[in-house]
Amino acid sequence: MIQVMKNIMTDELEISPLSTISTWFKVGGGASRFCAPKDQSQLLRCLEIDPALRVLGDGANLLVDDDGVDELVVGLTEGEFKAFRVDNERVFAGAGVKLPRLINHTVNNGLAGLEVLAGIPATIGGAIVMNAGGAYGQIADVVDVVHAVDRSGNVHRIPREKIDFGYRHSGLNHLIITGVELKLTSADEISLTARRNEIMDAKKRSQPLSANCAGCCFKNPTLVTDVPDIGQAGTRVSAGMLIDRAGLKGLRHHSAFVSDVHGNFLIADTGGRARDVIELIKQVTSRVYDRFGVALNTEVVVWSRA
């Protein structure tokens, strides 16, 4: 369980317990220690306190076990981490800037490149680490430079050509993203607005966006062998389609269930338990493998005590 501790002030850092870590599942535990540094120097101080600290973004791709976590949890939601500026076609954004906010700002100012990510809830830092994207595009397409620190406190400036971007992959998981430089292109504001709205409307029709869930739970797998009526080896297929064809829509484990609208959305009842979601993930993974011989890997990150 979460240990109760008094707030600690150290070098202008306030470290306090967090009874519940806010995620889009709206279930789960908290952190014994939480801090929201305002700049890079304070973040480096946090790393001195706990080199194994965990970084909390928007909580849109996160599930925290009911017992919470031991490590210091850092939220990059204050000061320079939530600021951004636009210089012609370049955008400089802190890791804590919320992606939907930045999408709307760039669209309204006639800058193209981020509108294809409409409907994806994330902070910029989280979006970079997982290379957020979907059927319409990915954030890697507009990244120019990533700024980060490592667990030893070293500061890094990483150009796009040095980043191993791939499907839901950046190769930057070992780093803590502090900011990013994006390279966008000038475009007609009306057309960009229409495109953003078109993408949002499509997602509203096909996804349970208002539910207690983290969006797509599983990555779309690449088939390693031919699967009859599914696809040939080397083909990337929809995880939601596999879950649907395995007859798992509506599958429930206590307070967690598979959406009837989209099979790749696992939903938690209000007041439910994170462990029910974790068990449901295991059941869906097992049944899809038994049915098709395809291994599903999660997009959702699960935090738990060691």
Key terms:
alpha+beta, Uridine Diphospho-n-acetylenolpyruvylglucosamine Reductase, domain 3, 6 helices, five-stranded mixed β-sheet, disordered N terminus, 19 strands, five-stranded antiparallel β-sheet, 306 residues, globular
Describe the protein's architecture and organization:
- It is a single chain.
- By secondary structure, the protein is of the alpha+beta class.
- It folds into 3 domains: 71 residues, Uridine Diphospho-n-acetylenolpyruvylglucosamine Reductase, domain 2; 109 residues, Uridine Diphospho-n-acetylenolpyruvylglucosamine Reductase, domain 3 (2-Layer Sandwich); 99 residues, UDP-N-acetylenolpyruvoylglucosamine reductase, C-terminal domain (Uridine Diphospho-n-acetylenolpyruvylglucosamine Reductase, domain 1, Alpha-Beta Complex).
- It is 23% helix and 25% strand.
- Strands 1-2-3-6-4 form a 5-stranded mixed sheet. A 5-stranded antiparallel sheet has the order 7-8-14-12-13, with helices on one face.
- The radius of gyration is 20 Å and the shape is globular.
Q: Spell the H/E element sequence.
A: EEEHEEEEEHEHEEEEEEHHEEEHE
CATH architecture verdict of the largest domain: 2-Layer Sandwich
Number of domains: 3
Low-confidence stretches: 1-9
| Category from helices, strands and their pairing | alpha+beta
Mean pLDDT: 94
**Would you count the extended β strands for me?**
19
The biggest beta sheet is recorded as: 5 strands, mixed
* Helical run tally: 6
How much of the residues is beta strand, in percent? Answer: 15-25%
Radius of gyration from CA coordinates: 20 Å
CATH C-level label of the largest domain: Alpha Beta
Helix content: 10-25%
What is CATH's topology name of the largest domain?
Uridine Diphospho-n-acetylenolpyruvylglucosamine Reductase, domain 3
